[in-house]
Amino acid sequence: MQIESSAMQEARRRSRELAAKRVAGQAYLWLLLIVLYAPIFLIFIFSFTQSKIIGNWTGFTFHLYENLFTGYDATTHVRVDPNLYRAVAFTAIIAFAAATIATLLGTLAAIGLYNMRSRARKGITFLNSIPMINPDILTGISLFLLFVFLNISRGFVTVLIAHVVFCTPYVVLSVMPRLMQMNPNLYEAALDLGATPAQALKKVLLPELKPGMISGFILALTLSIDDFGVTFFTKGSNGLETLSTFIYADARKGGLTPELRPLFSLIFLTILILLIIMNIRTNKQINKQKK
Amino acid sequence: MRKFTEIASARRTWAWPYVLFLVLFVVLPLLLIFYYAFTTPEGDFTIYNFIKFFHTSEAVNTLIYSMAIAFITTVICLLLGYPAAYIMAMAEFKTPQVMALLFILPMWINFLLRTIATVELFNMFGLPLGEGALLFGMCYDYLPFMIYPIYNTLQKMDRSLIEAAQDLGANKVSVFTKVVLPLSIPGIYSGIVMVFMPTVSTFAIAELLTHNKITLFGSLIQRSFGEGGIAMWNYGAALSLIMLIIIAATSFFDQENDRDAQKGGLL
């Protein structure tokens, strides 16, 4: 009896220790997260007040949101900087165009690479990794020098090319694993059964590669939207701005356009909701597979 | 026409457009950095650009300072990030992916805006903008890049190894130092490279975080392509080449790792 109870005490002590450790660990994670999110919350909170600068609370209002959507300040009748809207539009157009081109180019490249001899494959894989290793500033400057050297005036097209440069490698890398998992004989079987290469591509290859293409496309979108360094060197000086370069110019001028606060709060919320939906969906799929 | 369909149906040719694209927009531009670095604005060969760099103590000091800042940032990120990755990987959360996701989520907010918000945070608490703000901002921006690869390797680790070590009489400390830590080295390498490379080459962030008080090597390069005009481009190319060498050396450190796959896995 005595022994048993002391063993029980020991077990209880250990489980208490474990619980304490878990709490400490969790506390550490949450502390890091709080610090990590503090600036974002700051933007979010101060999107609900009208002051020019963050940190100066002048009362709760949806004014900045109204300004953002109407394009001008109803009380002061000052227009919201029209360059902001142009930057938003340009960011979206570039991101979708670059992601689309990168997905097509990268998927074709992945299929080609998969069917190559290993020596050629290694060489191209190395080239493919250069834009991923290269920091923004080097990608940006090297392309800047190229466009200067070839006498191409910088603008929409050069920014688009630059974005395709740093997006495509990630598409290749997202599509490649799908190819590796695929039964290599499927495509040949389709050809043997009388499908043309185009049909075999459409009916056999693409459906298998679709998940990789989609995640490559989404990754390309986010990389393009977030880019600053490469765009900075390839956009030229004829007034073309993405959100990143707009914010940079804005911050260097001094005050940040207040309407950026609601804009980014909305973007953040959208992403948050999308991620939650995606997460729930994958969890459901995992549960289905388990059943 | 028949020949064309033959070529198109040999699937290895499908990579050709991308290879052409890579040569034109990746290889050629990098070669141009070399070309400009070793020429005068008139196009004559010279090594003057490098001599100029090594004789400008300000420029050399900026390079050393930037590497030091990047190094310190990397160490802080490792010290903060490893425990976080470890706790996440080891704890039996009901939803471990959600926790990992929370650490990655801030990266979806434009990093310049996050940096500016950090500046405002410092202003709000009356903290000075200087080296401290710079280090905080850098760690803040790149901590997720350290946590994620370490978390990934720890999560894929075979748990039975830990149990085996325990059964064989290892105490907690030696389980960690002899089993967990060695197995997480690839993740640590990836994390170090993924934090060091962008911090050593950053421009823009430093100016914003320190109100132009501190200049990093990246800003120095940027300036020679901006304000200086054409006359400075060759010098800027020489500085870029020095940066390229640092990056290449750093990436050797991580050669055996599938760093890119991990970066891709951030999604």
Q: What this model shows, in words?
A:
- The complex is a heterodimer of chains A (291) and B (267).
- Chain A is mainly α and 291 residues long.
- Chain A has a domain at 82-256: MetI-like (MetI-like fold, Orthogonal Bundle), CATH 1.10.3720.10.
- Chain A is built from eleven helices and no strands.
- In chain A, helix 7 packs antiparallel against helix 8.
- Chain A is flat, with a radius of gyration of 26 Å.
- Chain B has 267 residues and is mostly helical.
- Chain B has a domain at 59-217 and 239-264: MetI-like (MetI-like fold, Orthogonal Bundle).
- Chain B has 14 helices and no strands.
- Chain B has helices at 2-9, 16-37, 48-55, 57-90, 96-104, 111-124, 131-156, 159-167, 172-183, 185-201, 205-210, 217-225, 233-253, 259-264.
- Chain B is globular, with a radius of gyration of 23 Å.
- At the A-B interface, helix 1, helix 3, helix 4, helix 5 and helix 6 of A face helix 1, helix 2, helix 4, helix 5 and helix 6 of B.
